[in-house]
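Methods — Computational structure assignment.
A single polypeptide chain was analysed. Its primary sequence is given first, followed by the predicted tertiary structure written as structure tokens.
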Amino acid sequence: MKKIILTFIAFVFFSISIKAQEINWISLNKALELQKENPKKIMIDIYTNWCGPCKLLDKKTFKNKDVAAYVNEHYYAVKFNGEGNEAINYKDTNFGNPNYDASKANSRNSAHEFADYMGVNAYPTIAFLNETGDFIAPIRGFHNPQQLEFFLKLFVTNKHIELKTKETLGAYYKAFEPKFKG
């Protein structure tokens, strides 16, 4: 009996440890709702089912324990299929994908209206919104944990507001010392 209890406790602890290292993904509609009571920035992973770099971003970056812990603490994290058919209500406008073809769910499909609205022209794109849901910036392409750390910390501290030129941003980037493990 003691062995069964110890095994159960180990299983629960292991399950909690694994869960703690995953990003808590929610829908954009839910994130915007949560912002009303607890303002936080939003990070949106805009992906497609067919996108190889999107899958790499999931595997190599979003599964990183440092990335997951930081995102969970400082952001509402949203996964959004840029060619899916999810209904989005953003800034009192409804967005959908009227040309969505369910038979193409795992291959190239039509772009979602919200992806177009956000100016997404490549996958993956990580879009950042401020605490009131206003658009900050899109970050295109695959980024490893340390590269993403730069953007996560840049936006959460609002440092991007004072870095108005490419030169000041470049100098800030050069001086940035990543802390996330690879």
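Note: Strands lie at 25-26, 41-47, 75-81, 88-90, 93-95, 125-129, 135-140.
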